[in-house]
């Protein structure tokens, strides 16, 4: 954000006569005396920008800038912009040009990158005094150093990267060109109004004359966009580039600001967060704009381009796209993409907030893409839950088929090979209930973590329905989930429970437990277990049943 109060420090040898001040609003000016070294050090450490004043009639005061003042400020560990101010131009006359001044100052600017600029004035005649403080403020609010390498005369890589990201976000049709409509949308976002036709053509002409690949018949290329900002900086119009960067969320260090990535948004206890209609629309349009081959799915290269304006794909560490719906080539479909964001928002809405910013959600802030649901206990008390995204925990013993159940839910090929669950695994898909689309997130943790989850009150209060899964062909399988129910679920009497008997395509066996599964369920007042087979695709409407139970416990 642009600073509203800037602390300007004036230092220099006594011969420079820094006595006159300027009444510029929002500026705090300090002029400690050299003989009071302790006060000088304090003020240097507090300053936002330092003006080193030298006397044009005193060559020694200019030499001491490089020999004393700049090394002294560096020694104190200050990395703030510095403006060189030549006083008493009234004593010299007009016998020096800007080129002469540049030749004189450039060696200092090359050695000390913190030096932003040099300006000459006359305190006695009141000449350029206001300009001194203007440039000092500008050095803080629109600094050169983060954007431009004065020695190499090129934009710094961090600036280039930020501008490339902005270009990509403004390229709505993803053709690597900013057409007139996209340019004016960018112009309005950053500066409040579109360009006139003549202004737009004039800009294109400037780019065309100086950057061969900067413009084509469709519009402005990425190279042309970068050229324009390089030109703005070289001509001293840093405020133009800084306005663009800040409008797209960048701070003074050219990283996206925390308040931009995570605007104020709190989820009350016992509530959950879902995408709003605006959020669903944004992610739908984002998918469609990156589906370049229009096959209804995003392949790896299209996903890479989609997330090129973000630090990375947020789901790389959780097995995506195997966590949602894909086509037969393994490319995520629109249904799967929207479902994945629904899951992310439910489990970690702060990640969704940040990625809305990374991916270019075009609103004042991205909280309008989210909505907070009503408290679960109120919904359960009324016997009707109105949310659209539901969380199901799946518990079961080793080999009971939890992973197969979850993979079957997202239509992955059944695998005969057993692989034990070593870490939490989540999947998501949509189901249709009463003609309305709902999303079900299913999570398994593995026997190693089951008790830890069941003892975590906060985690259990986030759950909408429990699926206790047992292998109908394993005599010891039911005992595991029955004991979990008896030991841990009494504290959550309103949490819906469904028992599921897996591998119904195999021979059914008697369970080694005090009561058989059907009898056990009747004793605790719930429906008898549902028999399913992922391998043979038997009773796969179990997922609709889980959501139905969550909606009407």
Summarize the structure.
By secondary structure, this protein is an alpha/beta fold. The chain is 40% helix and 17% strand. Helix 13 (334-347) crosses helix 14 (349-358).
Question: What would you say this structure looks like, in words?
Answer:
The chain has 553 residues and is of the alpha/beta class. The chain has four domains: 6-141, 3-Layer(aba) Sandwich (Rossmann fold), CATH 3.40.50; 154-254, Recoverin, domain 1 (Orthogonal Bundle); 260-372, Recoverin, domain 1; 388-551, P-loop containing nucleotide triphosphate hydrolases (Rossmann fold, 3-Layer(aba) Sandwich), CATH 3.40.50.300. It has 21 helices and 20 strands.
Indicate the CATH class of the largest domain.
Alpha Beta
- Which percent bin holds the helix content? 40-55%
Q: For the terminal residues, how far apart are their CA atoms? A: 49 Å
> How many beta-strand elements?
20
Poorly predicted residue ranges: 19-25
General form? elongated
Number of domains: 4
Strand numbers in spatial order across the main sheet: 16-17-15-18-19-20
Mean pLDDT: 91
- CATH topology of the largest domain, by name, is Rossmann fold
Biggest sheet descriptor:
6 strands, mixed
Structural class: alpha/beta
CATH superfamily of the largest domain: P-loop containing nucleotide triphosphate hydrolases
Q: Which architecture of the largest domain would the CATH scheme give at its second level?
A: 3-Layer(aba) Sandwich
How large a portion of the residues is in β-strands, by DSSP E? 15-25%
Number of continuous helical runs: 21
Rg on CA atoms, Å: 33 Å
Membrane topology: Single-pass type IV membrane protein
InterPro entries: EF-hand-dom_pair, EF_hand_assoc_1, EF_hand_assoc_2, EF_hand_dom, Miro, Miro-EF-hand_domain, MIRO_dom, P-loop_NTPase
GO cellular component, one term: mitochondrial outer membrane
Organism: Clydaea vesicula
């Amino acid at each position: 954000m642009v600073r509203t109060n800037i602390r300007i420090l004036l230092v220099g040898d006594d011969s420079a006569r820094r006595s006159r001040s300027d009444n510029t609003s929002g500026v705090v000016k300090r002029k400690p005396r050299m003989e009071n070294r302790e006060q000088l050090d304090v003020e240097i450490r507090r300053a936002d920008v330092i003006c080193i004043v030298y006397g044009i009639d005193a060559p020694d005061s200019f030499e001491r800038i490089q020999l004393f003042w700049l090394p002294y400020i560096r020694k104190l560990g200050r990395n703030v912009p510095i403006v060189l101010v030549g006083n008493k131009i009234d004593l010299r006359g007009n016998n020096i040009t800007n080129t002469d001044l540049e030749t004189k100052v450039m060696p200092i600017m090359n050695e000390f990158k913190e030096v932003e600029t040099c300006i000459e004035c006359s305190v006695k005649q009141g000449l350029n005094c206001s300009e001194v403080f203007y440039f000092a403020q500008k050095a803080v609010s629109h600094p050169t150093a983060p954007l431009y390498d004065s020695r190499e005369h090129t934009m710094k890589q961090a600036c280039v990267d930020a501008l490339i990201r902005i270009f990509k976000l403004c390229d709505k049709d993803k053709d690597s060109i900013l057409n007139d409509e996209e340019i004016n949308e960018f112009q309005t976002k950053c500066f409040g109004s579109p360009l006139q036709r003549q202004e737009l053509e004039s800009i294109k002409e400037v780019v065309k004359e100086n950057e061969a690949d900067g413009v084509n018949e469709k519009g402005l290329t990425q190279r042309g966009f970068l050229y324009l900002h390089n030109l703005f900086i070289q001509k001293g119009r840093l405020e133009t580039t800084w306005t663009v960067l800040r409008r797209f969320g960048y701070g003074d260090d050219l990283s996206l600001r925390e308040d931009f990535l995570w605007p104020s948004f709190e989820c009350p206890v016992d509530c959950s967060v879902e995408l709003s209609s605006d959020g669903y629309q944004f992610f739908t349009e984002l998918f469609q704009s990156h589906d370049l081959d229009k096959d209804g799915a995003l392949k790896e290269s299209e996903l890479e381009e989609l997330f090129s304006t973000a630090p990375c794909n947020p789901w790389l560490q959780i097995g995506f796209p195997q966590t949602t719906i894909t086509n037969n080539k393994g490319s995520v479909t629109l249904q799967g993409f929207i479902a994945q964001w629904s899951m992310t928002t439910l489990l970690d809405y702060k990640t969704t907030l940040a990625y809305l910013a990374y991916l270019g959600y075009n609103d004042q802030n991205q909280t309008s893409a989210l909505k907070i649901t009503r408290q679960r206990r109120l919904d359960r008390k009324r016997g009707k839950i109105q949310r659209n995204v539901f969380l199901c925990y799946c518990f079961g013993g080793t080999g009971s088929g939890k992973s197969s159940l979850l993979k079957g839910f997202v239509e992955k090929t059944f695998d005969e090979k057993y692989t034990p669950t070593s870490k939490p695994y989540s999947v998501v898909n949509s189901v249709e209930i009463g003609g309305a689309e709902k999303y079900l997130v299913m999570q398994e943790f593995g026997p190693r973590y089951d008790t830890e989850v069941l003892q975590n009150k906060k985690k259990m209060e986030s759950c909408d329905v429990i699926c206790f899964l047992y292998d109908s062909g394993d005599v010891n399988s039911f005992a595991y989930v029955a004991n979990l129910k008896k030991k841990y679920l009494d504290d959550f009497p309103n949490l819906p429970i469904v028992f599921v008997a897996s591998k119904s395509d195999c021979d059914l066996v008697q369970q080694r437990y005090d009561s058989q599964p059907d009898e056990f369920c009747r004793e605790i007042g719930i429906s008898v277990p549902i028999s399913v087979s992922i391998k043979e695709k038997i009773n796969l409407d179990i997922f609709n049943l889980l959501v139905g139970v969550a909606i009407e416990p």
